[in-house]
Specification:
This protein is mainly α. It has 25 helices and two strands.
Length: about 550
């Protein structure tokens, strides 16, 4: 005991309050600096520009602004409703059903969520060449069925089903037991998923641009058109403010619902709650597989369209990737654009992992720090880290064009600008995937290592990181595929001589010519295949802790 006490008293073995605060501050410096420089500053610049010369007042007085806002909200609400309706039976299948192949279903459901927007836009264009509101709604719902299925299913799988069984034993029908017992318990997860889906649909860019054309425009696409085509920076900034208000409202609803969901979870293993379907449950399983079949239709349509031409089956689009399109549509070849995408996504993923891991470590340290002030700071930082996920990528890209020219060297011409923008989108995903695992690490392991003389940095390196390795690998794969398909901010920032593949696809689609169209569909199919492979890798790497409340 004397030796142990002496050991504990040696300097550096147990961090005091002051050294702990210094360590937390050191961890937080890099993520906070990155957020300030590459998120807060551009967004504040948009706010200032929007208020300059009465731009906001002028935009708010225009009937077109409210028409755009109304259509944005309406299509997002309709898409959310469709995604919730389609996602519920799939959530039941993932959470409550014990059948072979559910792991494959979980992987398949993830694929639409991580597909690039240009891929989904072209897939639905292959089905309905005319586009329209219904096509936009279905495409957005296609993206987000996974959010509903996995968020609701993540809670549903851990709910104690004995209350529902008790209601059934007292004479309640399956529907009444579900409506009176299970659905109220799932309400926080449903609200959280709906808020996230609404957020994604309200800021949808590639899908609306591909399928809406000039007839149907949202705030997101109007900001892009006013900036690129009309050079109306003040008007675009004013519309960004209107959109930002809607985004913040959706984020607030999602945060409140997520907090309620976390308090509602009863950590029971899926082995206790899942079982082989009985009676009418088979109907729900059948509906779930019907939804999965519907999700497969656009994917099949895309593949078939990539190998067809006016004269029949053809691989001309794939061969054309070695060129620059019909009449020199692109300034580089299709394969060069693909290599640019791979390099940019790699840089963005490495950057996002470094910043995301530091941010997650800071949040864990703040949560374990004594006092309400540290925890309140952690909650505020957690909310700030999630903001880039909700704020329009087009708005952020627009802000970069306004602000980053003021820095030494003018970063607007730097090849690192696109990775910075893409990393901003990936960081929240990294934090959300790594943070639950870091929080679940037994504090006694850290204390034992500290007692044996390990510094806080060594504890972090040898205890936390190895235990979180699988989640880190999954976060890297997830972030990589998201960066690979990012289109909103990249369409602003990519240089003409170094487009990414999604930007090249957008250019090919906007120009006439059958070869351009074939080349675009071929490139989309290759992106989809890469995405499917990465989604499979993510499912194999995800830690068990990440299954509660998936997104």
């Amino acid at each position: 005991m004397a030796r142990a006490a002496g050991g504990l008293g040696r300097p550096g073995l147990r961090a005091g309050p002051r050294s702990s605060a210094v360590g937390v501050t050191a961890l937080a410096v890099v993520p906070i600096a990155f957020l300030v420089l590459f998120f807060a500053w551009p967004v504040v610049a948009i706010l200032r520009l929007g208020f300059a010369d009465g731009g906001v007042a002028k935009a708010l007085a225009e009937a077109q602004t409210w028409q755009l806002a109304a259509f944005t909200v309406a299509q997002a609400a309709a898409s959310t409703a469709v995604a919730v309706l389609l996602g519920f039976p799939v959530a039941f299948l993932l959470a409550r059903v014990r059948l072979r192949g559910t792991a494959l279903v979980r992987t398949f459901v993830l694929v639409p969520f991580v597909l690039p927007t240009v891929v989904v836009g072209l897939a639905f264009r292959a089905l309905w060449p005319g586009g329209g509101v219904a096509t936009i709604v279905l495409a957005n719902a296609f993206f987000n069925v996974a959010v509903v299925a996995r968020t609701v299913g993540g809670l549903w799988a851990h709910l104690d089903r004995r209350a529902e069984d008790a209601a059934r034993s007292l004479g309640a029908s399956p529907w009444r037991a579900f409506r009176g017992v299970t659905l109220p318990a799932l309400a926080p997860a449903v609200a959280s998923a709906a808020a996230v889906v609404f957020l994604f649909c309200a800021t949808s860019f590639g899908v609306v641009l591909m399928l809406g054309g000039s007839r149907y425009r949202t705030l997101e696409t109007e900001i892009y058109l006013r900036t690129v085509n009309l050079l109306d920076l003040s008007g675009a900034a004013a519309l960004s403010l209107v959109q930002l208000a809607a985004v913040l409202a959706a984020l607030a609803v999602g945060a409140l619902a997520r907090r309620r969901r976390e308090t509602a979870v009863r950590l029971r293993s899926k082995a206790e709650t899942a079982r082989r379907p009985e009676g009418r449950e088979w109907w729900v399983v059948g509906v779930a597989f019907g939804v999965l079949a519907l999700l497969l239709v656009p994917i099949v349509a895309l593949v078939l369209r990539s190998v067809s031409s006016r004269d029949g089956w053809s691989l001309a689009g794939y061969r054309a990737l070695a060129g620059s399109g019909e009449n020199g549509t692109l300034s580089v070849t299709g394969w060069d654009a693909a290599l640019n995408s791979l390099r940019t996504a790699s840089d963005a993923t490495v950057l996002a992992l470094v910043i995301g891991v530091l941010a997650a470590g800071t949040l864990v340290a703040l949560r374990r720090s004594p006092g309400r002030g540290a925890r309140a700071t952690g909650e505020a930082m957690d909310a700030a880290l999630m903001l880039p996920l909700g704020v329009s990528a087009v708005t952020v890209g627009f802000g970069y064009l306004i602000t980053l020219g003021e820095l030494p060297g003018d970063l607007r011409t730097s090849p690192l600008l696109v990775p910075f923008a893409q990393a901003l989108v990936i960081i929240p995903l990294v934090v959300r995937m790594v943070l639950p695992v870091l929080r679940s690490v037994d504090e006694r392991l850290r204390q034992a290592a500290a007692t044996l003389g390990a510094s806080p940095a060594r504890v972090w390196r040898e205890i936390d990181l190895p235990l979180a390795a699988r989640s880190l690998a999954a976060a890297a794969a997830f972030g990589y595929v998201v960066a690979l398909g990012e289109f909103g901010a990249t369409s602003f920032l990519a240089r003409p001589d170094a487009p990414t593949l999604p930007v090249a696809i957008g250019a090919l689609v906007s120009r006439p010519g059958e070869l351009n169209s074939q080349m675009a569909y071929a490139a989309c199919t290759l992106l989809m295949l890469v995405t499917a492979l990465v989604a499979t890798l993510i499912e194999r790497l995800r830690a068990p802790q990440a299954q509660v409340g998936e997104f």
